[in-house]
Specification:
Blueprint (H helix, E strand, L loop, with lengths): L13 H4 L25 H5 L67 H7 L9 E2 L29 E4 L2 E6 L2 E5 H7 L4 E5 L2 E6 L2 E6 L4 E4 L2 E4 L5 E3 L2 E5 H12 L12 E6 L9 E2 L2 E2 H18 L3 E4 L9 H9 L4 E9 L9 E6 L25 H18 L4 E7 L2 H4 L5 E8 L3 H7 L2 H21 L1 H6 L1
Helix pairs in contact: 5-8, 6-11, 8-11
Length: 471
Amino acid sequence: MHPDRPASRRRSRGLIAALTASLLATTAPLHADVTTDTEKKGFFGRIFGGGKKEEPAPPPAPEKPETPSTPGPKPTVTTKSKAGSSTKPSTSTSKTPPPPAKKSEPAKPTPAKPVAAAEKKSAPPPAPPKTAAVKPAGDGEFAQDRGELKPPPPSTPLPPAARQSGGWQIVNINGRDYVTGESLHQFYRFSSYKVEGTHVWLRSNNLIIKATIGSQEMLINNIKFILSYPVQEYSGRALFSRIDLSKLIDPVLRPSHITDAVPFDTVVVDAGHGGHDAGARGIYGYEKDFALQMARSVRDALQRKGFKVIMTRDSDTFITLGGRVAVANNTPNCIFISLHFNSGGSEAANGIETFALTPQGSSASLERGGGYNANGLTGNSHDSANIALATAVHAMVISKFRFVDRGIKRAQWSVLSGCKKPGILFEGGFVTNPNECRLIASDTYRQQVSASIADAVVNYRTALKGAMTRR
């Protein structure tokens, strides 16, 4: 970014499928400078009210019937953290990660043998088939949402350095736990699972997850997520980091199971920058002005939905990062949304991206976003709610406008790490890109994006209603 960011049997259909029944049936006509796409429904359309149209996956291999699993407790997914990695804060005033606070590390599970050691003692077994299928229970898509299920036992032997834990196939690589693609396939009852070269596909009726071995990018119905760690391959299997499973994949697929969700009726809207902190500069104006105009528009849209709204600033004034966080922390029953616009090293940089706080033991999506979060930062304990809110907002906006999807990312921005409420930082386009800056300066664009954000907040609350009620 730019230097100013100091820098029952009824299925809960997941974060992308249960937030709304569909996209808005009608929207106000847009001016010529904003283009909408009305054919991006599916899993995100039913959960978060947004999402791109799914692309077809390669034909799945013939399914082999397996014995259905019996109900049991959900596997406990724990994470590990390692000491180390320093962060490189920037020198500006909006999103610089603060120095890490000391925090005790969670108890570590007994580590499995290192991969290297296992390889020396025994040769790996023959690679398992690259396709797998499981007979879906009931009506298919997420049968496990009717109760906590333990995945059925693996049909093929585990590779060296692997172990079985609570029904999950876990492989330890260089001290970090990974779960196999077969485990995801079986637990979430995908109708098909396929590994083709470096490409990994998990598919159900209205949901396609696509990942690439060696990459941190993962697509859920073509909405981009940036994983904390690249997908690995070992002994013929695709592996997803255990922390990505617990802090990203599961909250997005099953928001009703989120344990850190809290009821809210208020949204704290933060307009980035202000006063002497102008933010990024574009040919049509400054980020601080566009952010304030967007914040006012978001406030109006949220109030029409029945929410209370608190603004961190409602004029061209400078508010410290700590002051912004304090507004959220002192507001009961709220969530936090910080609005910004981006800058890039060239005019070609473009697109929309949304940030949630980096969980403990994870890596930020970009170096200036804080690097590796070894010990965690004090303040925010809403990892799952954060990623759910980010998914709701990002998927809704991407589904409505033909912008480049830069992904849902992680960073230790100060306004996120100090916040004790569920929160996100939304980047609504690049002011340094002439074409996008022209849109950003348009009242039509800002009003339409603001309406989408308000719809997404409603969808987020709907998707997490069960979890909030239990809490």
